[in-house]
Amino acid sequence: MSAPQPTYLHDYQPPAHRVTHTELTFDLAPGATRVKARLHVERHPERDDAAESPLTLDGEQLSLKAIAIDGQPLDPDEYRVSDTQLIVHRVPKRFLLDTEVEIAPEANTALEGLYQSSGMYCTQCEAEGFRRITYYPDRPDVMATFSTTLIGDAQREPVLLSNGNPVERGELPGGRHFVTWEDPHPKPCYLFALVAGDLEKVEDSFTTVSGREVALQIWVEEENLDKTDHAMASLKRAMAWDEQTYGREYDLDLFMIVAVNDFNMGAMENKGLNIFNSAAVLTHPQTATDAAFQRVEGIVAHEYFHNWSGNRVTCRDWFQLSLKEGFTVFRDQCFSADTNSAPVKRIEDVAFFRTAQFAEDAGPTAHPIRPDHYIEITNFYTLTIYEKGAEVVRMLRNLVGWEAFRQGSDRYFERFDGQAVTIEDFVDCMAEASGLDLSQFMRWYSQAGTPEIDAHGEYDYAKSEYHLTLRQRTPATPGQPDKLPLHIPVRLGMVGTKSGDDLRMTLDGEALGRDAVIHLREEEQHFVFTDIAEAPVPSLLRGFSAPVKLRFPYSREDLAFLLTHDSDGFNRWDAGQRLALLALDDLIAAHRNGVEKVMDVRVVEAFRGLLHAETDDKAVLAEMLTLPSEAYIAEQQPLVDVDAIHAARTFVKQSLAVALRDDFLRVYHDNASDAAYAPEPEQIAARSLKNVALSYLMSIEDEEGIELAQRQFSAGHNMTDVRCALTLLTHSSRGDLADPALRLFSEKWAHDPLVMDQWFSIQVTRPQSDVLDRVTFLMDHPAFSLKNPNRVRALIGAFAGQNRVNFHRIDGAGYRLLADVVIELNRLNPEIAARIITPLTRWQRFDEQRQALMKAELERIRAEELSPNVFEVVEKALA
Ligand code: ARG
Ligand code: ZN
Fold first, then answer.
1. How far apart are CA 727 and CA 93, in angstroms?
2. 333 and 349 Cβ atoms separated by less than 8 Å
3. Residue to mutate, 126, 311, 330, 835, ligand 1, most ligand atoms under 8 Å from C-beta
4. Where is the Aminopeptidase N-like N-terminal domain (predicted)?
5. Cα distance between residue 400 and residue 550, in whole Å
6. Residue 103's beta-bridge partner residues?
7. In the prediction, which pLDDT does 1 show?
8. Cα 126 to Cα 123: distance, rounded to the nearest angstrom
9. 87 alpha carbon – ligand 1 mean position (Å)
10. Ligand nearest to the CA of 305
């Protein structure tokens, strides 16, 4: 087999032929589904060579049964079929192409194209899954209206769904029936969807701003009918929010969501028929945590928002993926911030971003927000395209201001409605609406890697001036050795050390106010702030105003000061994180040198201060009391020593627990409540604060803490509390606490796969050294299956990604286990295989012994016959 070849952005050309209307008929059967396609094809006006060009269609794993043009069957010498294409040598200017193919949904374990999940049929076409359904120009710049007829068994598939509106249905001989759907909005084939099965629906409605009534349906398996309330409420809030915030109204009379058990990603925005991973839509107070409720809300909104940012205006090619994903993530983040606690939403997003996206940007698969080549596009549904893409849109909003941003957005949706466009088209609208020159800003889209800013500052008492120097540098990334300076908005304030207030700032004679944005465009820039009334501590990069690493030589006293006085909630939190990191650094060094560990009293006092301060935002307080994760600590180290990091973090946590035990107990009791569960900000905040307190008490296995955890577990009030208690009991060193609770839990929830996923994750993230045996044992558990992505993520993903001390065991057994799974998944589900391998690709960050072990496993994988997905990742990791 020859090595898979990359696709390049610079090779882009419009297609020679386009499809204006697509008629599909599916005769569904698990082993042999027949797909008839009638394509209305014409030459593309923008291609001068269209007349001489053959018709080239994509197709994979299809068996062609018939082909005709304008009703005339073709002779075998008039066309050619390969593993990936169907080419018709000569075609008229405008014609009808009829094809019929056979496919086998039951054999489809890759979950791309048409497949079966728990007996039902469903599809996932983005990015290039439609070519596994029928021969078609499978590219987003070909947009057609669709008319789809589904034929299924009336008993097994009473429900037959596709995009748009149902226009006809009827009985057929042999116990079969059909439904025809019409989607009037031209769309690329990646937005096509069908669902067929024995499903039940929950129905509601939404009246749009212009007074149209839209029917809303959530389709689930019968046993999940009681788990749709939150998704439905979230959908209605999202619809109203998009009208109010972006002036975007829904454009069909029907909007459907379907929950599917086997799904590679979170969800998919197919026109009028969103398909969701059941984990991203189903909630119930007894089965889903607060975090899961919030995730569902965010994903429901995300997919709904795609109806405009993605569907009405789509991407010209897959290099532009961030055009729809970055913008839509930004939109869903703002929606969640508006519905919940905005500062906490920002803290959570940034904490995740700085851990996971920074690691991606520093690793072998680093790529720009708009990559210039790929082998397998599925590998580019990444934190960089999504989350860094959203950070860049956020910077745009902050640079031009909300009003110009909204005008630019209106312009974008109006000008490009019904078109497939590029990132330039979007940024141009913002530039036009604001009058700003965004040409340097465009580098954010083409340069990979996390920019680093070194900041230095000094207060000149005699002149009342503050001198700030910012120096930026973006480290080399694979294929990009040299980087140009970026346009970086740095939001900042100067907090007076005497008053504790934000001081007025003047820069180059211009009054900036107390909170301002300065623009770093050069490699190095010097800023002189005049009339700074007293010596300040600078508060830099407020709200994480740019996705960069900013270093400033803060003393611990400075950080403790910002922790209490910074007016920016995000930076207050970040000051606490920085303070903890300094203490952790010392302890990591002490651990490595075998020196006795001593806790920094300044951290203890800072935490004591937090626990005693009057606070109105408990959710922020809970975040502030949460130590940086092991993964984030690792990100700060030149060489990752997983054992030292774990030991140091545990030591800090236990020291704080010992010193502040009574405060944590008090906080626990103050925030415990018997109120009926609601996924509302105030309750969520109290629960997270209470559970953070409990985690400190359990870190020292405090007798009273243990009793509280056991009581919280048995009370079974809601899954947030139960899961937290079970995790703490399971992660304690006492097997007598873990085993009975785990047993009770699995007996109670054996019937619910999404709850059993939590049971898997909790066990495989135990820090105890016997956990690897547990992972192997659980892989044989009847509730586990390598074919289900949620199970794989819950068990293997959680172990390899979150249990750092055990995954990185010095005997390499953790690496071996992951490689074995990757090799098996490479055959079953290449997309998931290429994702789950990530921790192994980060070998550069570890000591030589571990590097050798990790690389040996990557080599072992490379020796297999690989899917393009795994091939691309492994090649990069070993390059
Ligand atoms: N567009 C979808 C979303 O962001 C994700 C689709 C991903 N598809 C894939 N094969 N990875 O909601
Ligand atoms: Zn998306």
1. 65
2. yes
3. 126
4. 23-191
5. 23
6. 33
7. 57
8. 9
9. 28
10. 2
Ligand 1 lined by 264 (C-beta under 6 Å): yes
The span from the CA of 224 to the CA of 229, in Å, is: 11
In 3D space, the residue among 67, 114, 103 whose CA is nearest the CA of residue 87 turns out to be: 67
100 forms beta bridges with 36, 66
Among 378, 275, 289, residue whose Cα is nearest residue 757: 289
- CB atoms under 10 Å from CB of 534, counted, come to 15
In the block, tokens 């009638």 appear at 38
pLDDT digits 0-9 by tens, 504-535: 999 999 999 999 999 999 999 999 999 999 99
Cα–Cα nearest to 86, from 34, 138, 127: 138
Is the per-residue pLDDT at 735 higher than 90? no
Residue that has been written with the tokens 């691309």 in this structure: 872
The DSSP H or E segment spanning 120 is strand 120-124
Residues comprising the chain, all counted: 879
pLDDT tens-digit series, residues 29-67: 999 999 999 999 999 999 999 899 999 999 999 999 999
* 202 Cα–ligand 1 center, Å: 25
CA distance 540 to 537: 9
Q: Which helix (H) or strand (E) holds 37?
A: strand 33-43
Q: Which residue has the tokens 């709904």?
A: 304
Cβ(263)–Cβ(277) below 8 Å: yes
Burial (CB count <10 Å: 0-12, 13-18, 19+), residue 54: middle
CA atoms within 13 A on the CB side of 414: 9
Describe the crossing of helices 321-339 and 423-434 by its angle, rounded to 10 degrees.
60
- 303 labelled catalytic: yes
Cα(751)–Cα(855) distance, integer angstroms: 40
Pairing of strands 165-172, 176-187: antiparallel
Q: What value does the mean pLDDT of the chain take?
A: 98
Q: Are 374 and 876 spatial neighbours (Cβ–Cβ below 8 Å)?
A: no
Residues near 834 by beta carbon (within 8 Å), at least 6 away in sequence: 376, 378, 379, 867, 869, 870, 872, 873
Q: Is 269's C-beta closer than 6 angstroms to any atom of ligand 1? A: yes
> Nearest Cα to 271, choosing from 101, 418, 478?
418
Ligand with an atom nearest the CA of residue 190: 1
Cα of 551 vs centre of ligand 2, distance in Å, is 32
For tokens 């490595």, what's the residue?
Answer: 592
Amino acid (one-letter) located at 851? Q
CA distance 637 to 641: 8
Select from 268, 315, 325 the residue to mutate for testing ligand 1; criterion: most ligand atoms less than 8 Å from CB: 268
706 and 698 Cβ atoms separated by less than 8 Å: yes
Of 23, 126, 157, 303, which residue is the catalytic one?
Answer: 303
Torsions phi, psi for 417 (to 5 deg):
-55, 130
Name the β-bridge partners of 277.
260
DSSP code string of 297-313: HHHHHHHHHTTTBTTTB
Atom of ligand 1 nearest to the CA of 328: 4
Q: For 650, phi and psi rounded to 5 degrees?
A: -60, -40
Q: How far apart are CA 811 and CA 853, in angstroms?
A: 8
Q: What is the tens place of the pLDDT at every residue in 771-813?
A: 999 999 999 999 999 999 999 999 999 999 999 999 999 999 9
CA 619–ligand 1 middle distance (angstroms): 31
Judge if the beta carbon of residue 268 lies within 6 A of ligand 1: yes
**3-state SS, residue 533:** coil
| Reported pTM | 0.99
Return d(Cα 667, Cα 694) in angstroms, integer. 9
Q: Does the beta carbon of 381 lie inside 6 Å of ligand 1? A: yes
Give the pLDDT band of residue 616 (cuts 50, 70, 90).
Answer: confident
Cα of 443 vs its chain's centroid, Å: 23
